[in-house]
């Protein structure tokens, strides 16, 4: 199956009030039903920039900044590690993770719904303490990872602020980097959530009243910084520039791509088409297409398109529509969100 | 974020400072004995045992202000004096050089090789003083003990912490502009060719496997980049070929130290806005380290050891002009 190069063209950038920090997965996009505006968020040190853009024209509408609240007496504002919108059937929350803990806001950032402080055993701690890795899971959960390895599972009520910690998942031995939920149809026996860590180990979970570990890819000594899950396939981006596809049921390696010349910082998936987006510190963004044959169980990945953002270490990349016809990119020290589109 | 960043920040910035001071001492034709004394005094202060012990404790990075004060003290640890304009320029050059090195490091772990390059050069500056050499070797060993066992992920966290510290700094440096490693807008050039990092494959190959693990298909894709496999890995030991050139001395007599006057950090609109939340601890840490450095024995000018002023600009007139534009 030949991969045709689909033409993406640069669109107007969205200016950011502050430049983006060098972090993993440093861009989140919320795509509510039209005609509501699209929302973008990028982390700048200890603040989060929130932008909105008109659906259709894509013109910038406005922005606000979320400071992380003062976490305690006499301690400076904490650095934010990641921010992501979590879309649940009942509500959408904007979750921020930082050195001090986890904050959950209403989707537009207007109201703080919940604040969870991380335990800092000693001060100053021997190891860095922070939360990182955010995903909606199941019908009413939000999962957040931590620097010591445990993943916190929050039970989210349909309204109000009564968020509780329902479970702590303890299978990672290194700092959690990213968590992602199944975006398509999981085959029988496959889990619907995947978490990744600094040592390159991946855990696939089946979510519910009690989360269950379905399969595990052992640590490979290479950091997995970004992960997505689609049709029972895990796509993982690594610090050595490789993208690997794993079967979510068996944990077996199904494809290996020498994709980038530097550390991969972001992956995203377009659920309607199986397109995969990768962004790395080599200044390149690639669009790939994943496919899995139901009859033969062949798993394939093909290259579709390359964009170069000159002199930029990419730290965030997201599709802006479920077909993958448009995407947005952030870079370290860059004070704008670059956008590309096929239409 | 990472609590192991401060030693790397301090040692590498210190190393760059020594390269610049060495070049300026020669350019200003300071007599050999005086120049050597200045370098020895600064290096002795930098590698003071008690100071190093404090530095290597797990802790968050100091604020920019606190760190700048440390270097102000360090630069004045001998008979040499710098006025504020020259000190500002020295600090701008040091920070932009290390920012460049951190950004361009092929692997996060290579920041350690950059640090070793600086230390190797420092050892050359004091090759004839066994006492100070001991202190530097001691620090070398402490670096190896502390950092060689860290994972790639932990190194990337250190690198991310450093990049957050250097965020939004775009001061233009003449030598970088001339070598075309920095654009006229102050941003560094990221090459898309050359050797890939050790442990990374040249991009292009896609391998697909069946559920038994057998490779069943292989395809290639092309990218605009032009990458090759690296020759060998640099040495992480006390001695050895580091292979990486980042962190070696880029200044020499024929390549003087200059910054673009028009890009002076004082009037750049994009100059980093420091975390505006007042940090009550900042005063504390400022005092502690500054006290530690200030409390160390400083050779006072006496008799033949007369002090002198070092100028970071090419002429006295330039320095005077820069001095008048200094903000307090």
UniProtKB/TrEMBL annotation, chain A:
It comes from the Eukaryota. Pfam families: WDR54 (PF21031). Residues 8-341 form the WD repeat-containing protein 54 beta-propeller domain. Keywords: Repeat, WD repeat. This is WD repeat-containing protein 54 beta-propeller domain-containing protein. It comes from Melopsittacus undulatus (Budgerigar). The gene is LOC117436511.
């Amino acid at each position: 199956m030949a991969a045709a190069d689909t033409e993406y063209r640069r669109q107007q950038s969205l200016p950011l009030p502050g430049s983006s920090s060098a972090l993993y997965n440093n861009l989140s996009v919320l795509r509510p039903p039209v005609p509501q505006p699209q929302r973008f968020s990028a982390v700048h040190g200890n603040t989060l920039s929130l932008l909105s853009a008109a659906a259709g024209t894509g013109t910038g509408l406005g922005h606000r900044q979320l400071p992380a609240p003062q976490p305690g007496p006499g301690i400076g504002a904490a650095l934010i590690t990641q921010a992501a919108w979590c879309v649940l059937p009942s509500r959408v929350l904007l979750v921020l993770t930082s050195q001090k803990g986890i904050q959950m806001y209403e989707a537009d950032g207007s109201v703080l719904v919940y604040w969870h402080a991380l335990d800092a055993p000693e001060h100053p701690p021997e190891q860095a303490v922070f939360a990182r890795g955010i995903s909606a899971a199941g019908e009413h959960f939000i999962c957040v990872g931590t620097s010591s390895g445990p993943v916190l599972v929050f039970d989210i009520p349909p309204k109000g602020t009564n968020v509780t910690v329902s479970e702590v998942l303890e299978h990672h031995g290194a700092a959690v980097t990213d968590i992602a939920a199944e975006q398509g149809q999981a085959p029988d026996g496959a889990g619907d959530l995947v978490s990744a860590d600094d040592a390159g180990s991946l855990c696939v979970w089946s979510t519910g009243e009690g989360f269950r570990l379905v399969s595990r890819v052992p640590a490979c000594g290479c950091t997995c910084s970004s992960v997505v899950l689609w049709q029972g396939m895990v796509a993982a981006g690594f610090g050595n520039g490789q993208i690997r596809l794993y079967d979510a049921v068996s944990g077996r390696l199904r494809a290996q791509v020498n994709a980038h010349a530097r550390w991969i910082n972001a992956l995203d998936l377009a659920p309607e088409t199986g397109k995969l987006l990768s962004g790395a510190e080599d200044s390149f963004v690639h669009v790939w297409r994943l496919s899995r044959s139901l009859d033969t169980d062949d798993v394939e990945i093909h290259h579709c398109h390359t964009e170069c953002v000159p002199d930029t270490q990419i730290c965030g990349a997201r599709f802006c529509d479920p077909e993958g016809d448009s995407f947005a990119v952030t870079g370290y020290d860059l004070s704008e969100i670059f956008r590309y589109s096929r239409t | 974020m990472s609590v192991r960043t401060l030693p790397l920040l301090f040692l590498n910035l210190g190393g760059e400072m020594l390269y610049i001071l060495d070049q300026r001492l020669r350019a200003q034709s300071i007599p050999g004995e005086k120049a050597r004394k200045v370098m020895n005094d600064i290096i002795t202060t930098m590698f003071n045992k008690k100071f190093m012990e404090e530095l290597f404790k797990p802790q968050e990075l100091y604020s920019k202000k606190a760190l700048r004060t440390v270097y102000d003290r360090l630069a004045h640890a001998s008979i040499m004096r710098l006025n504020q304009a020259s000190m500002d320029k020295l600090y701008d050059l040091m920070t932009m050089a290390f920012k460049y090195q951190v950004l361009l490091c092929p692997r996060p772990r290579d920041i350690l090789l950059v640090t070793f390059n600086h230390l190797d050069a420092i050892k050359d500056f004091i090759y004839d003083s066994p006492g100070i050499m001991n202190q530097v070797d001691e620090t070398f060993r402490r670096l190896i003990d502390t950092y060689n066992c860290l994972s790639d992920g932990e190194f990337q966290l250190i690198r991310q912490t450093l990049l957050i510290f250097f965020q939004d700094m775009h001061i233009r440096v003449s030598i970088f502009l001339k070598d075309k490693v920095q654009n006229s807008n102050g941003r560094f050039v990221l090459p898309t060719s050359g050797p890939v990092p050790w442990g990374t494959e040249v991009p292009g190959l896609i391998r697909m496997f069946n559920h038994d693990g057998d490779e069943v298909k292989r395809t290639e894709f092309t990218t605009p980049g032009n990458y090759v496999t690296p020759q060998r890995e640099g040495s992480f030991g006390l001695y050895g070929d580091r292979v990486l050139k980042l962190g070696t001395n880029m200044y020499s007599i024929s390549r003087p130290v200059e910054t673009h006057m028009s890009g002076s950090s004082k009037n750049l609109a994009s100059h980093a806005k420091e975390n505006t939340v007042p940090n009550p601890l900042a005063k504390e840490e400022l005092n502690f380290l500054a006290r530690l450095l200030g409390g160390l024995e400083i050779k006072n000018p006496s008799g033949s050891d007369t002090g002198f002023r070092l100028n970071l600009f090419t002429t006295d007139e330039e320095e005077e002009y820069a001095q008048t534009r200094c903000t307090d």
